Amino acid sequence: MLEDHTTAASSATTWPAAYPHGYAVVDVETTGLARDDRIISAAVYRLDARGEVEDHWYTLVNPERDPGPVWIHGLTSEALEGAPLFADIAEEFATRLEGRVLVAHNAVFDWQMIAREYARARREPPVRQRLCTIALSKALDLPLPNHKLESLAAHFGVVQRRAHHALDDARVLAEAFRPSLHAAARDGLRLPLHECRPLTEWTDRPAPRIGQQAGGPGGYGHRATGWRPARKRPACPYPNPGRYEEGKRLKQGMRVAFSGDTSVERELLEDRAVEAGLHVATSLSRLTSLLVTNDPDSGTSKVLKARQYGTPVVDEAAFGQLLADVEPASEQ
């Protein structure tokens, strides 16, 4: 039923010329959610310009450390011990991604995990753009109860067989992405594409070997290794002048917080803000001058607090324009 509908939509839709020529639907399972966590399995479904499956690929990856939340992904130390290292599969993975838009559910997470693994392997992933299916479902205004993959799958009648298994999650997402893509083409919707910038810094600090306990249940709490040196920014030298007011300039010393996915890598945006004399805040409080988010309806803790406190909110594009003309701090 779904296939027939999609085919009919294909023939009836004048395909937007600006749409990408191919997609790589990706899912990775990891040892955790932090910067120093590792990929333990990866799957890619390659799709053509109209979302039809060309082929798929799956691999386990030895993370060289404890596998983390086994109760979620089901991959034990024993299962991963004989698996290839990421460096061993990096080239094959790259051939699956090359020349395509990376598509994932919460794409910024998958992209950042992939980018860090390539940085560790001293390689650059061939990905220039990503598309988040959460953002696409919001743009299509799909009547979903939440933004979980299972809800998107249910909406399109896609059956999940093994949740949190990279290959099945990628399959489910590919099947749900195709009708989403056709709906976007039908409505002439601009796809929510974001730029991917590869990472170029990493560290070589030793990590605990696979099977070695790392603290917390199954090692989930371990944070001993890192992909880049820790950066502690100096304190902002300017006093906080208060909240940003719409139509006015940003002023040095203003406290700026970020939430959600951005087209420019988050750390680069933060660096630009600091260079302009702003204070980058990791959390949101009543003292925050401005929240920058491309998704003000996301329901993240920062967005909810911004609503509660009445903190002004702008998107990334508007923030970029404001950064070009920041008012100097008042003389003391």
Name the features.
six-stranded mixed β-sheet, disordered N terminus, 332 residues, 33% helix, four-stranded parallel β-sheet, alpha/beta, globular, single chain
Question: How would you characterize the overall build of this protein?
Answer:
With 332 residues, the protein is an alpha/beta fold. It has eleven helices and ten strands. It has helices at residues 2-12, 70-73, 77-81, 86-97, 107-120, 133-139, 149-155, 166-186, 266-275, 301-309, 316-323; strands at 22-30, 39-48, 53-60, 101-104, 129-132, 193-195, 255-259, 279-280, 290-293, 313-314. A six-stranded mixed beta sheet has the order 3-2-1-4-5-6, with helices on both faces. Strands 8-7-9-10 form a four-stranded parallel beta sheet, sandwiched between helices. Helix 5 links the parallel strand 4 and strand 5. The protein is globular, with a radius of gyration of 21 Å. The relative contact order is 0.13. Residues 1-11 and 206-230 have low confidence and may be disordered.
